[in-house]
């Protein structure tokens, strides 16, 4: 089986699929703020394939790299409940 290689056409496909919005926040994406990450992080068993990729706002990059969407939601809920 050939290893998946990300191409510009894949990014265009993801942009259309996500309606040019961040997978996590819904913020509008542009060339200055867009980044790509795995939906299920590789370290948590995710695969490097198109169906496991999403476009996110760059400020979420490190958070998404190591956590699933559910883990991020739990972390955000804790911050909101803490009310600092």
UniProtKB/TrEMBL annotation:
> Keywords assigned by UniProt?
Endonuclease, Hydrolase, Nuclease
What Gene Ontology molecular-function terms does this entry list?
endonuclease activity
Highest taxon above the source species: Bacteria
Q: InterPro entries annotated for this entry?
A: HNH_nuc
| Protein name, as recorded | HNH endonuclease
């Amino acid at each position: 089986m050939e290893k998946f290689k990300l191409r510009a056409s894949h990014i265009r496909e993801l942009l259309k699929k996500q309606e040019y919005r961040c997978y996590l926040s819904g913020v509008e994406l542009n060339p200055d703020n867009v980044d790509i990450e795995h939906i299920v992080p590789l370290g948590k068993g995710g695969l490097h394939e198109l169906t496991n990729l999403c476009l996110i706002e760059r400020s979420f990059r490190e958070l998404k790299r190591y956590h699933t969407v559910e883990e991020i939601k739990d972390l955000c809920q804790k911050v909101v409940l803490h009310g600092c």
